[in-house]
Amino acid sequence: MISERSILVVEDDADISGLVELHLRDAGCRVTLAADGAAGLERALGEAFDLVILDIMLPGVDGLEICRRLRSEKPELPILMLTARSTELDRVLGLEMGADDYLTKPFSVRELVARVKAIFRRMALFDSHPEPDKLLRGPMEIDADARRVLIEGEPVDLTAREFDLLAHFARHPGRVFTRNQLLDDVWGYTHSGYEHTVNTHINRLRGKLENDPSQPRFILTVWGVGYRFPTTEELGA
């Protein structure tokens, strides 16, 4: 449910933040605004929010640094990043810093609200625990209740979206997913041009899960199609 969710919007453009606030409040959310990076970081770290909407270009502390700090101190807090930068490298950089999703300015407010709703739908789905509480996949243990991942007994720190993506793969060993299917299943939408969101999250996951990310054990590439999680037989357990 999007109603009653608490959202922090860190945006220095008053016209944009006011428009975003108006539409999110109409959707039933509680909205807090911060107009610069320092204030946004202080509120994000000191208060409880369900989502942070974060501009990448901010006075003082920029959005990338805020994202990095939040990922270090509140790894499960979803972050939707806004950027006026149009290059693919800048968008990927935001995702690599730990953003769960992004929109490039100028954006449709309707699209923003749809993204927010998708994030909260996924949160509600995983909070309801319709799947087994624990998954054992070879040397990996995934605890849905604690949202914790262990590999050979060692914990792996994942963001909320990284955890959701890994759990989705692990619940369907052997099944091949296209990028658009993963966007739909894990992010809650399919939108042409955002396939790099999937690529970047998978690269980050491999960097955290694998001894050698160039020779992955857990998230395998199916060339020309997408990605899959290995079967029990392939994991050797």
The helix-and-strand class reads alpha/beta
- Overall shape: it is elongated
What integer value in Å does the Rg equal? 18 Å
CATH uppermost class of the largest domain: Alpha Beta
Reported for the largest beta sheet, the result is: 5 strands, parallel
CATH homology-level superfamily of the largest domain: Response regulator
Ends distance: 39 Å
- Find the CATH topology of the largest domain: Rossmann fold
Q: Order of helices and strands, N to C?
A: EHEHEHEHEHEEEEHEHHEEH
How are the strands ordered across the major sheet?
2-1-3-4-5
Strand content range: 15-25%
- Provide the low-confidence segments as ranges: none
Task: Please bin the fraction of helical residues.
Answer: 40-55%
Number of individual domains: 2
What key phrases describe this protein's structure?
237 residues; alpha/beta; Rossmann fold; Arc Repressor Mutant, subunit A; 2 domains; five-stranded parallel β-sheet; four-stranded antiparallel β-sheet; 9 helices; 12 strands; 20% strand; elongated
General description of the model:
With 237 residues, the chain is of the alpha/beta class. It folds into two domains: 6-127, Response regulator (Rossmann fold); 134-235, Winged helix-like DNA-binding domain superfamily/Winged helix DNA-binding domain (Arc Repressor Mutant, subunit A). 43% of the residues lie in helices and 20% in strands. It is built from nine helices and twelve strands. The chain has helices at 14-26, 37-46, 63-73, 88-96, 109-127, 160-170, 179-187, 195-209, 232-235; strands at 6-10, 30-34, 51-55, 79-83, 101-104, 134-137, 140-143, 148-151, 154-156, 176-177, 220-222, 226-228. It has a five-stranded parallel β-sheet with strand order 2-1-3-4-5, sandwiched between helices. The protein has a four-stranded antiparallel β-sheet with strand order 6-7-8-9, covered by helices on one side. A three-stranded antiparallel β-sheet has the order 10-12-11. α4 links the parallel β4 and β5. α2 (37-46) packs parallel to α3, α6 crosses α7 (179-187) and α7 (179-187) packs across α8 (195-209). The protein is elongated and about 55 Å long. The mean pLDDT is 86.
